[in-house]
């Protein structure tokens, strides 16, 4: 799959995923499992929701 997540976007997704998971653990709620989604997208470097809109937060390479 084509990567479409840049460094800043990836960092935000990792932090957000960790916070959501920790809040789920603290409040003993299964909603914390939603934090897996931003973690997965950050680690894979691909956001499936960006694809249909042709969005990419990667920096363009100089040609």
Going by helix content, strand content and strand pairing, the class is mainly alpha
Number of strands: 0
- Main sheet makeup: none
Give the averaged pLDDT, no decimals.
93
Intertermini distance = 22 Å
Strand percentage: under 5%
Description:
The protein has 63 residues and is an all-alpha fold. It has a domain of 43 residues. Helix content is 46%, strand content 0%. The protein contains two helices and no strands. α1 runs antiparallel to α2. The longest helix has 20 residues. The model has no long low-confidence stretch (mean pLDDT 93).
Write the layout of secondary structure elements.
Blueprint: H1 7-26, H2 36-44
Give a brief outline of the structure.
This protein is mostly helical and 63 residues long. The chain has helices at residues 7-26, 36-44.
Q: Which features does this protein show?
A:
single chain; 63 residues; mainly alpha; 2 helices; 46% helix; elongated
